[in-house]
Write a structure and sequence with these properties.
globular; about 140 residues
Amino acid sequence: MIQMGTILKQVYIPYTEWEDWINGMWRKVSPEDEIIMLKQAIDFTGDHIIYGQAMSEVINAWPKTMLNSLTNTSINRRAFLGHCAVCYKTKIPEYITRRAWKELTNEQRINANKVAQQNIDQYAKTNKRIHKNMGTQMLLEWDPG
């Protein structure tokens, strides 16, 4: 787990640019679709291998969403990353994924949280240089060489 001294500084991006917003993570679906999607979400989140792979993929596929949210240490970043992964791979909205989480076993939750934290730690490690001087420099450090 990343230590307190290495926490990224939060970056703010307008929600209209977030890929999760653009791809319908916050939309509502019909009651009929909810029933089908809930089963799919339980199956998807219950398999930490495919769930973890989707987390890794969505970090790269949705860079603005990740920059805005994975630099925000006041949210549950593991849950957020999981919700994004499900929406990215299956188009299932966040509120259904939250319902699916309640149906998982403790072991499934532990495994999913572990892989989510590994992805978050890797994101922080990879992006630490980008964010370490927020407020004193532009987003990316300038290397004129």
